[in-house]
Amino acid sequence: MQFAQLFLRSAFLFLALIFPPTVWAENSTLLLRFLDVGQADSILVIQGEHALLIDAGNNADQKMVLAELEQFRLTRLDAVIGTHVHEDHIGAMDAVIKKLSVGTVYFPRQTATTKTFKDFVTAVKSKDLKLTVPHPGDKFDVGLAHLEVLAPARADYDDPNDFSIVVRLVFGSTVFLFTGDASFESEREMLASGRDLSATVLKVGHHGSATASSATFLAAVHPKFAVICVGTGNKYGHPTAAALGRLEASGAVVYRTDQHGTLEATSDGATVSWRMQK
Ligand SMILES: [Zn+2]
To answer: What is the per-residue pLDDT across 88-134, written as a single tens digit (0 to 9) for each?
Structure first.
């Protein structure tokens, strides 16, 4: 082996030892945008050239969500996740699917007779895509970030919110848990599964409803930050004092889209920093 080659190889090994690969690689940040879509969810995840959209707000949020995707010059999403059937999660997903190139559309085994759901399915079909049902333990990558599916474990819940797809995204030593509208029942199943639920950032379940974010679930997640996607003056009284109390007791710093507008989190693989719209 020539000296120059040996030198380069040693230098490479040396750098790989000091810097973990996710931090060392180019485009080595993970960007998350918790969009202020009022009483609804929409979270954009970008890592390098790769992007994932978790939920797309209400039907009326179409313009805002598309503008957001355009702002980042996104023409392709590796995947979209419609967490469950309710309008405040898949409202504008049809427009997103029609406008952009999408790799995989994840959706639970759940159905509805609403126009919103029909529009969503029609958009999926119009792009020759299909709905992919994820199962706990399924894994895929968003660039250098690794995602694992935690829920739903079943397809026969009484509460439609418990069908919510829950995913845990790992980037370096920072972890993000997105719970859709999953409530106590799904939380119990995730705890019983024995999977690692710990996260740096928790997207709080069901807009801060009283029937999500149980104390035991929060103890297992042990979030440093908790984000509540919620609309000002919503008719459900979200976020509830009960959920806020449990979050406070967990020690998490709570951010809310109704108070802070769109929230941006950036991870360098070691720490998470925040920018708030207001
Ligand atoms: Zn919801």
So the answer is: 999 999 999 999 999 999 999 999 999 999 999 999 999 999 999 99
Taking the centre of ligand 1 as the mean of its atom positions, its distance from the CA of residue 276, in whole angstroms, is 22
The rounded Å distance from CA 206 to ligand 1 centre is: 5
**Across 151-175, average pLDDT:** 98
Contact at 8 Å (CB) between 165 and 106? yes
The pLDDT score that the predictor gives to residue 24 is: 46
| Order of strands, sheet of 131-132, starting from the edge strand that comes earlier in the sequence | 131-132, 101-106, 76-81, 50-54, 43-47, 30-34, 263-267, 272-276
CA of 21 to the centre of ligand 1 (A): 36
Could you tell me the domains of the chain?
27-276 (3.60.15.10)
Q: What is the pLDDT of residues 165-198, one digit of tens each?
A: 999 999 999 999 999 999 999 999 999 999 999 9
**How remote is the CA of residue 188 from the centroid of ligand 1, in Å?**
19
User: Taking the model in full, what pTM does it have?
Assistant: 0.91
Distance CA 171, CA 203 (A): 16
How far apart are the CA of 225 and the centre of ligand 1, in A?
20
CA distance 205 to 75: 29
Copy the structure tokens of residue 14.
């040396």
Q: What is the dihedral of CA 250, 252, 257, 263, to 10 degrees?
A: -150
62 Cβ contact list (under 8 Å, min separation 6) = 91, 92, 95
